[in-house]
Write a structure and sequence with these properties.
Layout lengths: L3 E6 L3 H13 L23 E8 L9 H4 L21 E3 L29 H11 L3 E4 L6 H14 L2 E4 L9 H9 L3 E4 L8 H14 L3 E11 L2 H5 L7 H12 L11 E8 L6 E11 L5 E11 H21 L4 E2 L1 H7 L9 H13 L5
Parallel strand pairs: 1-2, 1-4, 2-3, 4-5, 5-6, 6-11, 7-8
Antiparallel strand pairs: 7-9, 9-10
Helix pairs in contact: 1-9, 3-4, 6-8, 10-11
């Protein structure tokens, strides 16, 4: 089988961790590879992925080889695989649209984007590059709130004939109109808004399900997150958070036996703390009633490197998208989306989503 060929929109921390991970696991075997949910998916191992095209808007990345661009500022994620060979794939100037929040210009260059002065790519440019590269899947890593830009690249994927993985909280896979476009074109799509391997959302969901299974009534809950990467800096603009907040909130609400009133649930980013860099700290509080209506409170603090945490899931979603291409499947891949994403078209408990995804991987379930 040939390697999986991906294109990426957004050469930020998340892609840096993903590309580092792909190269890191190329030197490992199934016996010594830790930190993975799956070593083999449909015959593809983690190292069987090549990047063949990339787009960004930062002048420190545009024009650079992908393997150097992933370490350029403002990227600040953990470097766990520093010696990556050049790819001979140059980062191309993308389309800005709403992919850049103006307030970020007020911060030091090492913390924020520095817009390239190269001409922006047109739709024809992006489609041509995707076709000429031989890419099979376009992986979206654009910033939160990039509604127009995400749809721009989704449209380019359709025109170029690529599968699409939407890691961001702009609703494409969970929008029936967009989902139908991919089905009609015979292309698979996974989305929306990637869950981390062991992050705040998946932990919050598991705890909420634990309350339900143990007969504890959850009455109030919050999840507050701080971080120091460009994602958190971007999210200081609260106008860009509508879909992100909805995605994270729905991920928890969907596993509750009864939905909480809006005033009793708060889930979303809290603040930008520059010195945290790519470290994300999540604070979760849950208030409920035990046997005899006796109150109980749970407080939890989770500290993780944000981008490697998402890469552990992305490396599986890419391989699931490729086996869908191999099998001639199209439209939303419901099971992988429910397991890998916060806002899939259909929500299941995590145990059920896991079971369905394993069945998809084995070929027992089509989507």
């Amino acid at each position: 089988m040939s390697n999986i060929k991906i294109a990426v929109a957004g050469v930020g921390n998340c892609f840096s961790s993903l590309w580092q991970g792909i190269n890191y696991y190329r030197t490992r075997t199934a016996d010594d590879a830790i930190g993975l949910m799956h070593w083999d998916i449909g015959g593809y191992t983690p190292g069987d992925i090549d990047v063949v095209a990339a787009f960004d808007i930062d002048r420190r990345k545009v024009g650079q080889d992908v393997s150097r661009a992933i370490f350029a500022p403002p990227n600040c994620t953990t470097v766990f695989c520093p010696d990556i060979p050049d790819t001979d794939v140059t980062v191309q100037m993308g389309r800005v649209l709403d992919g850049y929040s103006e307030h970020m210009a007020d911060y030091p260059d090492n913390q924020t984007f520095v817009l390239s002065d190269q001409p922006e790519a047109t739709e024809d440019d992006v489609v041509r590059i995707l076709r000429e590269s031989g890419a099979e899947i376009l992986v979206n890593y654009l910033p939160v709130g990039s509604e127009k830009a995400v749809r721009f690249y989704a449209g380019c994927a359709l025109k170029a004939g690529l599968g699409y993985i939407n890691n961001m909280p702009v609703f494409i896979a969970s929008d029936p109109e967009w989902a139908e476009k991919f089905r009609e074109k015979g292309l698979p799509i996974i989305g929306d808004d990637i869950k981390s391997q062991l992050g705040a959302t998946i932990t919050h969901r598991v705890l909420a399900n634990l309350f339900k299974n143990r007969g504890v009534k959850l009455e109030k809950t919050y999840q507050l997150n701080t971080g120091g990467n460009t994602d958190f800096l971007n999210m200081l603009n609260r106008h860009r958070l509508k879909s992100k907040k909805l995605s994270k909130t729905e991920a928890v609400q969907s596993v509750l036996p009864q939905r909480l009133d809006p005033e009793n649930i708060h889930i979303g980013p809290s603040d930008y703390v520059a010195f945290q860099k790519d470290n994300k700290v999540a604070f979760i509080r849950m208030e409920g009633k035990l046997f005899g209506d006796v109150p109980m409170h749970l407080e939890m603090r989770l500290s993780v490197e944000d981008s490697p945490n998402s890469a552990g899931v992305a490396i599986d979603s890419i391989r699931c998208c490729r086996i869908a291409i191999d099998r001639g499947l199209s439209g939303v891949l419901t099971s992988p989306s429910s397991y890998f994403m916060k806002h899939p078209p259909e929500q299941f408990t995590d145990d059920e989503a896991c079971r369905r995804t394993e069945e998809f991987i084995s070929g027992k379930r089509e989507s």
